[in-house]
Amino acid sequence: MQKPGFFSEGEAARKGSSPALVTVGPETDAIVLKLIPEAAIQGKIQSEDGEPIEAAPVMAFALHINNGHKIWGQAGSARTDEDGEFRIANLTPGTYYLEGGPKLRSSFPNARSATR
């Protein structure tokens, strides 16, 4: 079962994989589904003199464990609108590091794209 704006407990633990399938019938015992609210990061990028910066890339990175090693991986991205505002949605709750700006070239150590 899915509900827009929520992850199942399993999806949150392994974001990016397929949701588990549950077959329900007349003989099925009660099922408890724990749903975790989807998280989002939003903000605004502006120049030193307060002017909004349009079309600036913004990337969110999260720490993942891969083969026993901690690796920062790209968790989401967005571009600013004409007001310099951005929103990165469909994130699991947690801690994120953001990089952004008109000339973004990620120098984040060990960063790997989530779109591989």
Structural overview:
The chain is mainly beta. It has two domains: 37 residues, no CATH class; 78 residues, Sandwich (Immunoglobulin-like), CATH 2.60.40. It is 4% helix and 38% strand. The protein contains one helix and seven strands. Strands 5-4-7 form a three-stranded antiparallel sheet, with no helix packed on it. A hairpin with a 2-residue loop joins β4 and β5. The chain is elongated. The two termini are 27 Å apart.
Assess the beta-strand content as a share of residues: 35-45%
Number of domains: 2
- Give the helix level as a range of percent: under 10%
CATH topology of the largest domain: Immunoglobulin-like
Largest sheet report: 3 strands, antiparallel
The CATH superfamily of the largest domain turns out to be: Immunoglobulins
CATH architecture of the largest domain: Sandwich
Task: Decide which structural class fits the backbone.
Answer: mainly beta
Name of the CATH class of the largest domain = Mainly Beta
Strand order in the largest sheet: 5-4-7
